[in-house]
């Protein structure tokens, strides 16, 4: 069989079905990880007694665990203990938790980068701590966070391929299935998958650049 024999509609459709699931998992994970990161990053920045320490402990714990292990634990171990969760939501949960911890550090660093003089000026203008945080510090910090956060989202999209360990029928999983049909299908299937990953990640990187220009 030749290289182009792979490109039949059943094969292409099967790969695209996995690609659509990858996009769905990534989209949910991006939203949830940002929410988690925003909450925990802000908590760690504010240094609220106990809450800040707990948030810091959880972030450090998760950041030092392999994402593959987290996905495997949620998708394979938890169901054995009686906690019923679908493969899709196991992947989303694992990605959201892990990437949320990464984003939390980005947000904490972004908040810390705001000049303390502006914070003091805001407090002297009768703004309380919460008002200063949300109206003065956070808007400036978010503008600076755009490039690293989008870079983290790009990593998240690529990391969806790790869900193959729990046999989630995403892009990488379906590429393995198609490649297993014929040895000659392996290279074209991988090239096709690489193209799909590239299109999404390149698009996100271009969006990040435009947002970075607009915020300066």
UniProtKB/TrEMBL annotation:
<keyword id="KW-0472">Membrane</keyword>
<dbReference type="InterPro" id="IPR035906">
    <property type="entry name" value="MetI-like_sf"/>
</dbReference>
<keyword id="KW-0812">Transmembrane</keyword>
<feature type="transmembrane region" description="Helical">
    <location>
        <begin position="64"/>
        <end position="83"/>
    </location>
</feature>
<keyword id="KW-1003">Cell membrane</keyword>
<dbReference type="InterPro" id="IPR010065">
    <property type="entry name" value="AA_ABC_transptr_permease_3TM"/>
</dbReference>
<feature type="transmembrane region" description="Helical">
    <location>
        <begin position="185"/>
        <end position="204"/>
    </location>
</feature>
<dbReference type="InterPro" id="IPR043429">
    <property type="entry name" value="ArtM/GltK/GlnP/TcyL/YhdX-like"/>
</dbReference>
<dbReference type="Pfam" id="PF00528">
    <property type="entry name" value="BPD_transp_1"/>
</dbReference>
<keyword id="KW-0813">Transport</keyword>
<feature type="transmembrane region" description="Helical">
    <location>
        <begin position="20"/>
        <end position="43"/>
    </location>
</feature>
<comment type="similarity">
    <text>Belongs to the binding-protein-dependent transport system permease family.</text>
</comment>
<keyword id="KW-1133">Transmembrane helix</keyword>
<protein>
    <submittedName>
        <fullName>Amino acid ABC transporter permease</fullName>
    </submittedName>
</protein>
<dbReference type="InterPro" id="IPR000515">
    <property type="entry name" value="MetI-like"/>
</dbReference>
<feature type="domain" description="ABC transmembrane type-1">
    <location>
        <begin position="19"/>
        <end position="208"/>
    </location>
</feature>
């Amino acid at each position: 069989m030749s290289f182009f024999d792979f490109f039949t509609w059943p094969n292409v459709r099967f790969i695209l079905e996995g690609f659509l699931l990858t996009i769905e998992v990534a989209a949910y994970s991006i939203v949830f990880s940002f929410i988690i990161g925003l909450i925990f990053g802000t908590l760690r920045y504010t240094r609220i007694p106990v809450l800040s320490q707990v948030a810091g402990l959880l972030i450090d714990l998760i950041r030092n665990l392999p994402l593959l292990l987290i996905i495997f634990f949620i998708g394979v171990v938890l169901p054995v203990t009686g906690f019923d969760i679908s493969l899709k939501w196991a992947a989303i949960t694992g990605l959201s938790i892990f990437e949320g911890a990464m984003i939390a550090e980005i947000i904490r660093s972004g908040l810390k980068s705001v000049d303390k003089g502006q914070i003091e000026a805001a407090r002297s203008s009768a703004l309380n701590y919460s008002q200063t945080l949300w109206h003065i510090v956070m808007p400036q910090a978010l503008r600076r966070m755009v490039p690293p956060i989008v870079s983290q989202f790009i990593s998240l999209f690529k990391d969806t391929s790790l869900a193959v360990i729990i046999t989630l029928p995403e892009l990488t999983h379906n590429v393995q299935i198609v490649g297993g049909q014929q040895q000659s299908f392996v290279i074209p299937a991988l090239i096709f998958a690489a193209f799909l990953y590239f299109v999404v990640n390149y698009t996100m990187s271009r969006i990040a650049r435009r947002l970075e220009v607009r915020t300066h």
